[in-house]
Design a protein that fits this description.
With 259 residues, the protein is α/β, with parallel strands linked by helices. It contains ten helices and 13 strands. Strands 1-2-3-5-8-10-13 form a seven-stranded mixed sheet, sandwiched between helices. α1 runs parallel beside α2. The relative contact order is 0.11.
């Protein structure tokens, strides 16, 4: 276990678990998001890391930003913090390695936005979600208005953000905000199980699939299809493709090398 700052990193079978520990609610400041970005950059440089899980300690995933700090900001410092947070969340979204949000409790404001930037969201039965910013006279600043719309739809996103209400795990599952709800004590184990499945796949194919899925939000089907055809042909020329076909023919598990 390596621990520095508020984030700890635990590695197991190609999976890295990033846990924030900042009791009682894991409220974040700009420096905490910078630390998260640094940890992710370290992991993406390590070829042995094939999947990442982000979670929180205690009863909170990430409870959001400490709103008592807002009064210290002027327009320029606030803009810097918003742009920096957006940059780091884009790195989560665009990094070659798949990222799972294991939402163990409160995911409010910036915490919800961190979860939205992840590829897969799983939560425990006691998880709570919300973009609560409107209740404090502000609006989401780390991509909440953009990603929530793409994930749950325009109408639902408008209602959630404009009312600033809290969603429970059952509703989050129903509207597609999360893909799975598990009992409280099983969240991390289940998240690691899925992460290990992702870690077993061909790294190049995973990276390309993420790129194509992200592009689908911004392109037409014909244009996205052209990109898909080009990128699919690239994956077919990899050693991993040859290994995948050989393993299928030999009825064994493939051993992908990321080449």
């Amino acid at each position: 276990m390596i621990k520095m700052g508020v984030w700890s990193v635990e590695k197991e079978e190609g999976v890295a678990v990033l846990t924030i520990s900042k009791p009682p609610l894991n409220l974040v400041y700009t420096e905490d998001i910078i630390e998260l970005g640094d940890k992710l950059n370290e992991l993406r440089k390590n070829s042995e890391t094939r999947a990442v899980v982000i979670t929180g300690s205690g009863k909170s995933f990430i409870g959001g930003a400490d709103i008592t700090q807002f009064k210290k900001f002027d327009t320029h410092t606030a803009m810097f913090g918003m742009q920096l947070g957006q940059k780091i969340l884009r790195e989560i979204e665009e990094m070659e390695i798949p990222v799972i949000a294991a939402v163990n409790g409160y995911a409010f404001g910036g915490g919800c936005e961190v979860a939205l930037a992840c590829d897969i969201r799983i939560c425990s039965e006691n998880a709570k979600f919300g973009q609560l910013e409107i209740n404090y006279g502000v609006v989401p600043g780390w991509g909440g208005t953009q990603r929530l719309t793409r994930i749950v739809g325009f109408g639902r996103a408008k209602e959630i953000i404009l009312t600033g209400r809290v969603l429970d795990a059952e509703e989050a599952l129903r509207i597609g905000l999360v893909s799975e709800v598990v009992p409280d004590g099983e969240l991390l184990a289940r998240s690691k199980e899925i992460a290990k499945i992702l870690a077993s796949k061909a790294p190049i194919a995973i990276a390309v699939a993420k790129q194509l899925l992200n592009a689908s939000c911004e392109s037409s089907i014909p244009l996205g299809g052209m990109l898909e055809a080009a990128q699919s042909s690239v994956t077919m020329s990899t050693e991993d493709c040859i290994e995948g076909i050989r393993a299928f023919m030999e009825k064994r598990k493939p051993e992908f090398k990321g080449r």
